[in-house]
């Protein structure tokens, strides 16, 4: 819950700090005094985008800071998901710099506004006059149904299964699209694939062929070079091997006289063996050389075919052709295996549809079981709030059409007068009736939703007298389980608060600013007397005001 709200250099406020009670707090003040500034400051803490015009002194930065006690609200996992340090006493700060740049911090860690908004949903529920209209919004209505039905687990189950079905359907459509595309190019792709397969491509093939081509194209030169090499190696008297044999003989004799030369002798002997092996291999290579024009023609033809394929498919090597061949095989297989793939895809969709249907029906049943609780609770509270003949119903039906919310539809209908037909709530309810219905819904949600703080901004608009008293009683009852802050013009509600703040304006040095102070004792009695519209100094007005303090 909100413990402290600090506001500096924001709108008409220079510097204030408000400490709130755990239960029911009241904020009053004349129209235009600055009550909306408090809401604006809270909205900034909840992630609303900042407006440079909100800075009071354009040369100083604006700071909004909120201290929250959140130890009993199980928010540690949310902090972890948002990569924030969890503290039971959490501090949120927004800063608007004179340059217009806005910064946000949670426990002194910089955060994005999107993360701040996600966190704010779990800290404060601001119910403004504008939000009264949201009761006719489908998303809000589903939220109420699922909160009262405690549907968080089954909703998550539905969400996961709905996403999976959507993915299967998207993949199925891709298969059909690819099939159509494959049909259009199938014959040509088969021709291209056949052409590449006939080339019997393999990694390194081009290099092998080009090497063999060079050899056969220069066979006479090769014969000359190898012949000369063999001659130098194996010439009877002056050849390398003949010389090495003599060296080897003399080194062996020397080693017999000096054992230290044994290693040197072994090395010479090793060289001799290697030279003899080279000579033998050279002779073998020389004898194997044979000019075969037919083989050379075949290699030239095969190489030219590879070069033509590379040019045709816009690649520079055989590896690129192999990759193209693999792609063509995949495209051809799409066509050839299309029917099987489509059958498998459809089977997945059918199976997932049945799973989703079971979850959707379970979700609908839990919502359907809840509508009686909501309808009877709202009707009962509307009777207490001065609409004794009100009829309120939530009507549901299973549609079998899967949407992100479920496979059902719900309609909220209302009638304020006996004998009047029930019609769509947002079309027939007046502003005052919507305020009372909203309060009834919020009161019901307070029993099911673990929300630290709720702020009502003039939810009492359009009501007065005894009805205002009953609205105040409802909010006071809500404050026994959560923190309630109410901005109000009605003394009947203001008198029920555990603490009472007054917003007022002053003018100093031709500058207007908003101030706020906590009222106690006689100050509070005088404020209520003024709100009653009487003479705040008269005994009767003060007595009436005193009677409102409960």
TrEMBL record:
Report keywords, A-Z. Answer: ATP-binding, Coiled coil, DNA damage, DNA repair, Nucleotide-binding
Look up keyword Coiled coil and say if it applies.
yes
Q: GO CC: one term?
A: bacterial nucleoid
CDD domains referenced in this protein's UniProt entry, alphabetically: ABC_RecN
Sorted alphabetically, which SUPFAM superfamilies does this protein's record hold? Answer: P-loop containing nucleoside triphosphate hydrolases
Coiled-coil-forming residues are 254-292, 318-355
- Gene Ontology biological process: DNA recombination; DNA repair; SOS response
Check the record and name the InterPro entries matching this protein: DNA_recomb/repair_RecN (IPR004604), P-loop_NTPase (IPR027417), RecF/RecN/SMC_N (IPR003395)
MF terms from GO for this chain are: ATP binding
Where is the RecF/RecN/SMC N-terminal domain positioned along the sequence? 3-509
Against Gene3D superfamilies, the record matches this protein to: P-loop containing nucleotide triphosphate hydrolases
What is the role of this chain? May be involved in recombinational repair of damaged DNA.
Instruction: Describe the family membership recorded for this protein in Swiss-Prot or TrEMBL.
Output: Belongs to the RecN family.
Q: What is this protein called?
A: DNA repair protein RecN
Give the source species.
Psychroflexus gondwanensis ACAM 44
């Amino acid at each position: 819950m909100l413990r402290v709200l600090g506001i500096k250099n924001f709108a008409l406020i220079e510097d204030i700090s408000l400490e709130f009670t755990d239960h029911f707090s009241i904020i009053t003040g004349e129209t235009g005094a600055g009550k909306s500034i408090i809401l604006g400051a809270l909205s900034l803490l909840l992630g609303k985008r900042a407006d440079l015009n909100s800075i009071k002194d354009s040369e100083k930065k604006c700071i909004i800071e909120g201290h929250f006690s959140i130890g009993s609200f199980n928010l540690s996992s949310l902090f972890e998901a948002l990569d924030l340090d969890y503290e039971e006493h959490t501090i949120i700060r927004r800063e608007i710099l004179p340059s217009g740049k806005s910064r946000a911090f949670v426990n002194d860690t910089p955060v994005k506004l999107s993360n701040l908004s996600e966190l704010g949903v779990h800290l404060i529920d601001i119910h403004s006059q504008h939000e009264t209209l949201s009761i006719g919004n489908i998303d809000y209505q589903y939220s109420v149904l699922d909160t009262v039905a405690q549907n968080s687990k089954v909703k998550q189950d539905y969400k996961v299964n709905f996403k999976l079905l959507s993915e299967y359907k998207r993949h199925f459509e891709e298969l059909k699209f690819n099939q159509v595309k494959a049909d259009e190019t199938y014959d040509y792709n088969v021709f291209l694939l056949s052409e590449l397969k006939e080339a019997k491509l393999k990694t390194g093939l081009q290099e092998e062929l080009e090497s063999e081509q060079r050899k056969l194209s220069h066979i006479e030169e090769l014969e000359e070079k190898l012949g000369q090499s063999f001659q130098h190696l194996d010439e009877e008297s002056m050849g390398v091997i003949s010389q090495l044999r003599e060296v080897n003989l003399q080194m062996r004799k020397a080693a017999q006289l000096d054992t230290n030369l044994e290693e040197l002798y072994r090395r010479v002997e090793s060289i001799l063996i290697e030279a003899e092996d080279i000579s033998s291999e050279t002779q073998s290579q020389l004898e194997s050389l044979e000019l075969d024009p037919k083989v050379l023609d075949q290699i030239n033809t095969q190489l030219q075919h590879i070069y033509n394929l590379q040019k045709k498919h816009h690649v520079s090597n055989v590896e690129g052709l192999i990759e193209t061949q693999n792609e063509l095989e995949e495209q051809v297989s799409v066509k050839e295996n299309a029917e099987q793939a489509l059958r498998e895809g459809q089977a997945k969709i059918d199976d997932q549809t049945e799973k989703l249907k079971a979850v959707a029906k379970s979700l609908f049943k839990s919502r359907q079981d809840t509508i009686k609780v909501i309808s009877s609770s709202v009707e009962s509270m509307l009777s207490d709030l001065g609409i004794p003949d009100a009829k309120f119903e939530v009507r549901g039906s299973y549609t079998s059409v899967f949407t992100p919310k479920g496979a059902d539809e719900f309609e909220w209908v209302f009638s304020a007068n006996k004998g009047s037909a029930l019609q769509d709530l947002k079309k027939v309810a007046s502003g005052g009736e919507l305020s009372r219905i909203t309060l009834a819904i919020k009161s019901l949600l307070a029993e099911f939703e673990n929300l630290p703080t709720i702020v009502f901004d003039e939810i009492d608009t359009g009501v007065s007298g005894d009805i205002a008293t009953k609205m105040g009683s409802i909010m006071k009852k809500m404050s026994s389980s959560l923190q309630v802050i109410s901005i109000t013009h009605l003394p009947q509600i203001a008198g029920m608060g555990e603490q009472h703040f007054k917003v007022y304006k002053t003018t100093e040095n031709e500058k207007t600013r908003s101030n706020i102070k906590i009222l106690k004792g006689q100050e509070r009695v005088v404020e209520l007397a003024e709100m009653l519209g009487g003479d705040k100094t008269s005994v009767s007005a003060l007595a009436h005001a005193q009677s409102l303090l409960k």
